[in-house]
Write a structure and sequence with these properties.
The chain is about 25% helix and about 35% strand. It is an alpha+beta fold and about 190 residues long. The radius of gyration is 21 Å and the shape is elongated.
Length: about 190
């Protein structure tokens, strides 16, 4: 990092999306009638099931595919997915926990300075875009990490990526570019 005072940036993971398969067909009506904390959506063909600890919401399809959202770490997502599989086993389904995969991680981070967005996009033109009429943030995409960073003029960042490691690497990679475009402090 280029800054004279090396302070650590707090990257707060706000959401982890994970998928897994049960390797068996699931009767959504049975889950809706006998399960706890469920919402049956027959028009979409899925059941929403909520767990309190860890706090996750799962979309369950009859094919056996399940998508878990709301976890705040990869380990918490896996724990929640396994707990969900156990709930389905208790309802009488022959569930086998398989093909667990973290699909998406959403995190937020705050820079210790404000950012001049027009300069930032001019300096990083092909991979950074800023349309102030459409969205108040500049979008910076890192192809090799499959990460996208929304940069706001206040210094707030919203980062999405395939896993927590890629999100952290993306912030490390964009920090020097943001440091060059920081706004001067008002006196």
């Amino acid at each position: 990092m280029d800054s004279s005072n090396d302070e650590a940036l707090d990257i707060i993971v706000t959401n982890v999306v994970a998928t897994f398969r049960t390797r068996c067909h699931l009767n959504l009506r049975t889950i809706a009638l006998e399960g706890t904390n469920v919402i049956y959506k027959p028009e979409v063909g899925k059941v929403l099931m909520k767990l309190r600890k860890p706090k996750i919401t799962a979309s369950i399809w009859s094919s056996g595919k399940i998508i878990c959202t709301g976890a705040t770490s990869e380990d918490e997502a896996k724990l929640g997915a396994r707990r969900l599989a156990r709930c389905l086993q208790k309802l009488g389904f022959k569930v086998r926990f398989s093909a667990f995969r973290v699909v998406n991680v959403l995190a937020v981070c705050s820079m210790p300075f404000a950012i001049h967005l027009i300069d930032f996009t001019k300096n990083n033109r092909p991979i950074a875009s800023y349309e102030p009429e459409l969205h108040p943030a500049a979008t910076y995409r890192i192809k090799n990490l499959k990460a996208t960073i929304q940069v706001f003029s206040t210094g707030s960042l919203t980062i999405t990526g395939p896993n927590v490691q890629n999100v952290a690497t993306a912030v490390e990679q964009v920090y020097p570019l943001l440091f060059e475009c920081q706004k001067p402090l008002c006196k």
